Amino acid sequence: MLNPVKVGILGLGTVGGGTVHILQHNAEEIARRAGRGIVVTHACAKEINQTYPYSTDNLVLTEQLIDVVNNPAIEIVVELLGGTTIARDMTMQAIANGKHVVTANKALIAKHGNEIFAAAQQQGVIVAFEAAVAGGIPIIKAVREGLAANKIEWVVGIINGTSNFILSAMRDKGSEFNEVLAEAQRLGYAEKDPTFDIEGVDAAHKLTILASLAFGIPLQFDKVYLEGITKIAREDVRYADELGYRIKLLGITKRTEAGIELRVHPTFIPNRRLLANVDGVMNAVLIQSDALGQSLYYGAGAGALPTGSAIVADLVDVTRTLTTDPGNRVPHLAFQSNALVDLPILPIEEITSAYYLRMTAVDTIGVMAQVTHILSENRISIEAIIQKEPISGEKQVDVVMLTHQVKERQLNQAIQAIEHLESISGKVTKIRVETLEH
Ligand SMILES: NC(=O)C1=CN([C@@H]2O[C@H](COP(=O)(O)OP(=O)(O)OC[C@H]3O[C@@H](n4cnc5c(N)ncnc54)[C@H](O)[C@@H]3O)[C@@H](O)[C@H]2O)C=CC1
Ligand SMILES: N[C@@H](CC=O)C(=O)O
Ligand code: NA
């Protein structure tokens, strides 16, 4: 067998720890698969004086990132720092030094991937990023290689473990939002800045990557429409249940004649669907493609070992292809770089969806007639409508409805008119309903 491949890791936190553990624990199996050993020789972190729960005996630990990136003995740099400034500099420096890079950093790839892949291609090195989308699920491999025969029509996914963990606990145990978020942070699921998880930014990073791989378009994070889960009220979770739905934070990207839909938002999903039953930190990605039809990919979306699993899989992949001519490797974004096309991304008002609407009626007499009149004027048909019984002593009641499919611009016009009614108090809550056929 050849000498082991030397790896340097930047960052020994949740994912760095999981990666070192797996490489040590499964060393023999990994070497049998890769054709040679894969050994971490150097690692960099801010907290190198702590005791790690794995052996650091043969590991040179440093606080200086550049010591790893500029070390001529290291062939593969694993970037597990997070963020898009220092991580970008280190990644670009590693590439300039002719090193392959493996990263879990979806923010980095979504925002700077076009530049990073161009530099990597010029240097003939690989930047591998399986861990960046849906944690341990081999979704990059599946889309880039497994579905290479297909024209992909749409991709829909639960791709943020933290927000799914929160929504599941709110529904199943009636837990408080902030308590569950703190638990997700303790378990190492959340981003350093957890607003990325709960405001949909992390899911948008991952969706940006999936859309590029699915449709052969450049990475365009700035064009993703995003809404997080922080505005979901307890009553919406309860009404979803009553109507036979679950609320999930979905990333949706779809090819239409007018352009590409690229959106992240809370979504009602009928509870009989598989996606509706993906709970806790689990992720799932459902893909519609022309030859295979639908395929579903399910597994742990965050955590030390699941994410470490994806990092090590990339290390094996890179090791196996070290001697392959760069022109014959799998292209970073699934399509050859000169075959990417710049399809337009649709503004959210141009999408068509069904909707859940909740409003508070202050005067119940005649309010239903007024609301349904506005909807019919805007050619919006209603699938279900519920007027809740007023709580005794109170005049206000919730009115909840589900619409059939309509263009979002049209729905927004109707909502504006409804909010102007004297019998309606405050804002109308709007949540999109998942209507993709499956
Ligand atoms: N935690 C998870 O389940 C998942 C995380 N990711 C991504 O993996 C990456 C790492 O995430 P975690 O391991 O959770 O983060 P973490 O916060 O647990 O670890 C970060 C590590 O980087 C080191 N570091 C950061 N800046 C440094 C600097 N300037 N100099 C030296 N060391 C520095 C820290 O000391 C720490 O060891 C992020 O990009 C994250 O988005 C991806 C999938 C899942
Ligand atoms: N914070 C992320 C970690 C994995 O990508 C999540 O919760 O999914
Ligand atoms: Na993955």
From TrEMBL:
<dbReference type="InterPro" id="IPR001342">
    <property type="entry name" value="HDH_cat"/>
</dbReference>
<keyword id="KW-0028">Amino-acid biosynthesis</keyword>
<dbReference type="Pfam" id="PF03447">
    <property type="entry name" value="NAD_binding_3"/>
</dbReference>
<keyword id="KW-0560">Oxidoreductase</keyword>
<dbReference type="InterPro" id="IPR005106">
    <property type="entry name" value="Asp/hSer_DH_NAD-bd"/>
</dbReference>
<keyword id="KW-0486">Methionine biosynthesis</keyword>
<feature type="domain" description="ACT">
    <location>
        <begin position="356"/>
        <end position="436"/>
    </location>
</feature>
<dbReference type="GO" id="GO:0009086">
    <property type="term" value="P:methionine biosynthetic process"/>
</dbReference>
<protein>
    <recommendedName>
        <fullName>Homoserine dehydrogenase</fullName>
        <ecNumber>1.1.1.3</ecNumber>
    </recommendedName>
</protein>
<dbReference type="GO" id="GO:0050661">
    <property type="term" value="F:NADP binding"/>
</dbReference>
<dbReference type="GO" id="GO:0004412">
    <property type="term" value="F:homoserine dehydrogenase activity"/>
</dbReference>
<feature type="binding site">
    <location>
        <begin position="10"/>
        <end position="17"/>
    </location>
    <ligand>
        <name>NADP(+)</name>
    </ligand>
</feature>
<feature type="active site" description="Proton donor">
    <location>
        <position position="206"/>
    </location>
</feature>
<dbReference type="InterPro" id="IPR045865">
    <property type="entry name" value="ACT-like_dom_sf"/>
</dbReference>
<dbReference type="InterPro" id="IPR002912">
    <property type="entry name" value="ACT_dom"/>
</dbReference>
<keyword id="KW-0521">NADP</keyword>
<comment type="pathway">
    <text>Amino-acid biosynthesis; L-threonine biosynthesis; L-threonine from L-aspartate: step 3/5.</text>
</comment>
<dbReference type="InterPro" id="IPR019811">
    <property type="entry name" value="HDH_CS"/>
</dbReference>
<feature type="binding site">
    <location>
        <position position="106"/>
    </location>
    <ligand>
        <name>NADPH</name>
    </ligand>
</feature>
<dbReference type="Pfam" id="PF01842">
    <property type="entry name" value="ACT"/>
</dbReference>
<dbReference type="GO" id="GO:0009088">
    <property type="term" value="P:threonine biosynthetic process"/>
</dbReference>
<keyword id="KW-0791">Threonine biosynthesis</keyword>
<comment type="similarity">
    <text>Belongs to the homoserine dehydrogenase family.</text>
</comment>
<dbReference type="Pfam" id="PF00742">
    <property type="entry name" value="Homoserine_dh"/>
</dbReference>
<feature type="binding site">
    <location>
        <position position="191"/>
    </location>
    <ligand>
        <name>L-homoserine</name>
    </ligand>
</feature>
<dbReference type="InterPro" id="IPR036291">
    <property type="entry name" value="NAD(P)-bd_dom_sf"/>
</dbReference>
<dbReference type="InterPro" id="IPR016204">
    <property type="entry name" value="HDH"/>
</dbReference>
<comment type="pathway">
    <text>Amino-acid biosynthesis; L-methionine biosynthesis via de novo pathway; L-homoserine from L-aspartate: step 3/3.</text>
</comment>
